[in-house]
Amino acid sequence: MKRIVFFCDGTWNRLDAGRPTHAVRLAQAVTPSAVDGRTQVVFYQQGVGTGRGSNMVARLTDRFLGGAFGWGLDDNIIDAYRHLVFCYEPGDEIFIFGFSRGAYTARSLAGLIRSAGIPPRDRIARINEAIAQYRARGPDTHPDSKASKRFRADFAPITATSQQDFDWRLAQGMDDTRLLTLAYLGVWDTVGALGLPSFLGVLAKLINHKYTFHDAALSRSVRSARHAVAIDERRRLYPPTLWDNLDTLNDGATDPEPPYRQLWFPGNHGIVGGSGTVPQLSAGTADWIAEGARMAGLEFDRVLLRQLVGPADSAAPLPDTLKKAGLFSLGGLLLRDRSGPARPSEVSINAADRVRAVSGYRPASLSRVLAAILAK
């Protein structure tokens, strides 16, 4: 048995970037084998809009369409899923990480696995059927419907994706099935900027239909998950896509650290994802996501990870990046504070420490919890 680890990078982000993201840093720090003897296999995927293509026109088109509208996301999801089919053996553990639109890819990959399972290699030509099953909406395509169970039993006979699915298969006499769970899902600032901006109205709705996010709710097929969200991102084109069912998933958890967490951190989108200009703030989100993965069983070279990430400092100066935002601001028309956390428990220690240490740090997105933070 081995650990299969996916890192899905954000828009325009790649391995050789001047300021690599946390997807790159954590991928570099995963050890090839763990102390328990398990092999750890890393799959890194560069983000959309990174200039892929066989000629200059194709590369420029990819950079523009992938970067501006997120085109290419489906290809990234299919590419990661195909890699998993070739690599997976029953009993393997799966870890998935992603930043920005790469977080969309990561969460969609987890949702696709829940919906379709993992087929044997001789069914890999049927991946488009799995994608269609995942994308479809309706009572017959819900993962727990009888139709979905029958689809998975035929498409992925070895992997049941829920206890209900497993029990159903046993009742059908399929006793060679294994219950599949994802060990960990760690994402940085999942954005809803997929397709055309919503202010383009009907045109945006027509184009964006295929990119509608399927996984605002996190599935129990993921054993543990963490989402680091940016407090100081104000661009309207970068709204966060939050998990909305963590209270339900954590209900009954007895550990001091619940398995499913979503916390707000200081910094904008790039800082939280690791590619920003304040590495001391970025370090906090890398440490937190990596900590969750370690608790789930993934092993990092801690010395190398510390070298790659650097020291954390919650009080580090935070420049006003929007002064040079140009088109993103349009005199403030494209700016809006995020709604932010509703409860103090959703605020990271890093953010709370910054509020108390930096007197001028009072972002509007923390307005609902600011008094409670300062009272402690």
TrEMBL record:
It comes from the Bacteria. InterPro entries: AB_hydrolase_fold, Tle1-like_cat. Residues 2-290 form the T6SS Phospholipase effector Tle1-like catalytic domain. PANTHER family: PTHR33840, TLE1 PHOSPHOLIPASE DOMAIN-CONTAINING PROTEIN. This is Uncharacterized protein, PA2063/DUF2235 family. It comes from Thalassovita taeanensis.
